[in-house]
Amino acid sequence: MRNNEVILLVDTYRKLHRRGAKVNLVNIIDKTHPADLALLFRSFTQHERLYFFSLIKSNEQKAEVLSEVDDNIIVEILQSLKKDDIIHIFREMDYDDESGILRLLPQEEQQELLKLMKEEESRKVEALMEYDKDTAGGIMNPEVFHLHESLTVGKATEEIQKSVDTEMVFYIYVTDERSHLIGVVSLRQLILNDPHKKLSDIMVEEVVSIRPDTDQEEVARLASRYNFVAVPVVDDENKLIGVVTVDDIIDVLREEATEDLLQMAGLGRDTDIILKSTWGSIKKRFPWL
Fold this sequence. Notes:
- By secondary structure, the protein is mainly α.
- It folds into 2 domains: 133 residues, MgtE N-terminal fold (Alpha Horseshoe), CATH 1.25.60.10; 154 residues, CBS-domain (Roll).
- It contains 17 helices and 5 strands.
- Strands 1-2-3 form a 3-stranded mixed beta sheet.
- Strand 4 and strand 5 form a beta hairpin.
- 26% of the residues are buried.
């Protein structure tokens, strides 16, 4: 979204708000992409952000917006919501997004929310939170699509069509009976091969994978080097335990670029500085001026 579009939309939102045009605001919010809405939220006051967020109709869209906005805005929004409402929004998120957001909250609030989650959800989110937030384990999604080596191409295609509750399928990771990662099949390979062939006959056996303790910046460099849109995560026994997808990789690249720019400007590594006042930034740089 260009700067002039941002200015125009911010002005439109504020005019509708002043006029009390709630129905119009609901409609325009519904038509604004979550990533664009997150960008607009930077220009709104706290009162405006909380009001506009409350007008988002579905928990799914609320989840998407929370996954896009800056960390300090996430905390601001969550503090305005009831715990039960937060849980309903979390249920529309991937586990890696849930764990990332929970990390922003005080320990006491984390525990309260974990207790309100369903047992399986709580267990998977807590498992992710045991990893350092800047590692592959901290940003991976444990819900990774994989199929057994004995399945045929035709059957694999059917399984993909049924995988509506799984992270978007970029590659078919092939595993053995003990969930060891033994190969990978691209969607293109799947389409072009005989439906009666087994996955083990068409898979690429040399799979580039990472460990959960791999630094997130190394994950991003690896994905960039090989043009991957997803990278599988395996444990010490080569068991498939998760996947880091392109949206997480982009977040890492954006975070790394922001940190580099801030360091060049003498502002440190704190990305929240971007949203602070000019005077705040000047004070941060004062020793160097």
